[in-house]
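Much of what follows relies on a compact textual record of a protein's fold. A record is reproduced here so that you can trace the correspondence yourselves:

. . .
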Amino acid sequence: MEKWSLMTITVLLGLIVRWTVSFGSYSGAGKPPMYGDYEAQRHWQEVTYNLPIKQWYFNTTDNNLQYWGLDYPPLTAYHSLLCAYVAKLINPDWIALHTSRGYESQPHKLFMRATVLIADLLVYIPAVILYCCYLKETSTKKKIASALCILLYPGLILIDYGHFQYNSVSLGFALWGVLFLSYSWDLLGSLAFCLAINYKQMELYHSLPFFCYLLGKCCQKGLTGKGLVLLIKIAFTVVASFGICWLPFCTEVEQILQVLRRLFPIDRGLFEDKVANIWCSLSVLIKIKNVMSSQTQLKLSFAFTFLTLLPACIKLTLQPSLRRFKFALVSCALSFFLFSFQVHEKSILLVSVPVCLMINEIPLMCTWFLLVSTFSLLPLLLKDGLLLAYVVTTLAFLTVCATSFSIFEKTSEEDLQLKSLSLSIRAYIPSFKAFPKIIKSLFIVSVTLMGILTLMSATLTPPQKLPDLFPVSVSVVSCLHFLFFLLYFNAIVLWDSRNGRNQKKIN
């Protein structure tokens, strides 16, 4: 009973922080003619309510795709339609065709913020609470601390409740998938993840770990017996899930092709804005977009993405365990973020949420990564006028993590989960015991550097010849961090010798 009372308080605290951030500005506020993501979400409600389904993804006189055309999968469109029906009941002007473009008012802002909160309460927050509550071999204190840290992760709060998006829906469905797989409810896990992909196509970042874990599990059971039956059931679940979600668009082949063209716009180029991935960072030295065609860029990004995620996927397929599955979610999503095509800065959330799931296992490294992921969003948050919210939520998150998990004391090789790697190194260098000191020093330098760059970005005017000096600096520094973390998480996966059957059921 006490555990659930504390969990209730934890949820309330998370909700208070979310709603407080929502009082601030949002993407594109008062900035015509395109405004920002807030207007994009409102416009999708306008389009889905006023136009027939066949026109949602097509360029027509009533649906100008150049003005925030719908470019997310069907579940997002259905969600927009549901919100539009509620908006129609409150104020029809909010979704009136054409005339509602750029609509801004306090009542409408309250409505839009409420839709994010309700979606969060229905999908993401219950998954977080159940995941933390049923962590095995974990004290009640740690379960509460884990839930609090996950719910206070500033990156997701600032993007969904500040900038304005519905990332908690797709991430919540993915988290339900992880939760179901933890209890061997493989069909429900597959269904939940299909819903995640059909809400946001960026969930493909997590697709290979789900696929490899389930395939490895089927192989373990035997592909001529129970394993084959399970594989067929999973395949049927996936096909049925996609079929139902896409059914209204399956009337014509051109409908399906047009939706796919909208979901995967190759012509947009390798990256957008100042995203903290390898291509944006390299463009400081080499203008990749100018020296390579779009097709070459696409092939190059595919090759690097595939090669960097391959080791974790092979290990997971051959030796499936829930522990390796969670680490593979992180390493594969990070590979996609760093090397794949058409990456947005907000896609780092797809790496951050799986990292959140391991905060009770590797508190220092997970806290560090989550701080860096939020820092990488700084240029976007400054553009949206969310500096105060960024500073307060980040400091609050660091304080909660530091006090809940004593992160500065958890720096031994065992705590960092680098014991196996250290033993391998000591086979060649017997005196090597430097990991704890190296990690502590790097963490201090990293946090100091992020603080300095935040202060400079917020207070100084860049030179006229280098107007993007601070955003680019933030992106490059964040990218270097992410490359380090890619090596770190892959090292854990590859040097992990634990038997999956001896692992905690969820943790």
